[in-house]
Amino acid sequence: MIKIQRNSVIALGANLSFDQTPPILTLRHAVRELSRKGMVVTAESRFYATPCFPPGAGPDYVNAAIAINANLSPVDLLVVLHEVEEMFGRRREQRWGMRTLDLDLIFYGDNVLPTIEEFEAWCNLPSEVQAKTAPTELILPHPRLQDRAFVLVPMADVAPDWRHPVLGKTVVEMLADLPPKEVAEVKPLLL
């Protein structure tokens, strides 16, 4: 059974302009739009310049994270995130491709969805398989968050002590497990 959870983190990213608006402004506008849709933003990370993932797939990204409170189920929250992405020109044509806006629900309290077995199966898929196949159900926590500096560095600004319900590690601990070179590539933008 899913508990309605008010404590969630959303990762934000963009590497393409939308309607002549640069990615950093698109992220700011998206946060404002989420607030208009009833999300209470409790913390915002700094903005970071990050190398495009996967490497060579397009321009570098601007990434950030926000902590929110929302009285929505995880599936309903995901619907809102997709609506906001669409408002800012997001088209789901290529997995892990360039985008005007990417809003990923990273965690929803301590919920593991859809089941621990399905979470672990997805988490253990090789990257090359995940690059070609999207899950049919919402997987939480995000199955690759522990592998991605561009997610963990901004998360450390807003939820450093959140403990992964499967891995048992905090955001800070998962970040410390990454190669230092990958972490160093995520650079704060001076605004």
From TrEMBL:
Q: Which InterPro entries match?
A: Hppk, Hppk_sf
SUPFAM superfamilies referenced in this protein's UniProt entry, alphabetically = 6-hydroxymethyl-7,8-dihydropterin pyrophosphokinase, HPPK
Q: Does the keyword Nucleotide-binding apply?
A: yes
Tell me which residues make up the 7,8-dihydro-6-hydroxymethylpterin-pyrophosphokinase domain.
9-160
Q: In which pathway does it act?
A: Cofactor biosynthesis; tetrahydrofolate biosynthesis; 2-amino-4-hydroxy-6-hydroxymethyl-7,8-dihydropteridine diphosphate from 7,8-dihydroneopterin triphosphate: step 4/4
GO MF terms here are: 2-amino-4-hydroxy-6-hydroxymethyldihydropteridine diphosphokinase activity
Q: Which family does it belong to?
A: Belongs to the HPPK family.
Q: What does this protein do?
A: Catalyzes the transfer of pyrophosphate from adenosine triphosphate (ATP) to 6-hydroxymethyl-7,8-dihydropterin, an enzymatic step in folate biosynthesis pathway.
Q: What is this protein called?
A: 2-amino-4-hydroxy-6-hydroxymethyldihydropteridine pyrophosphokinase
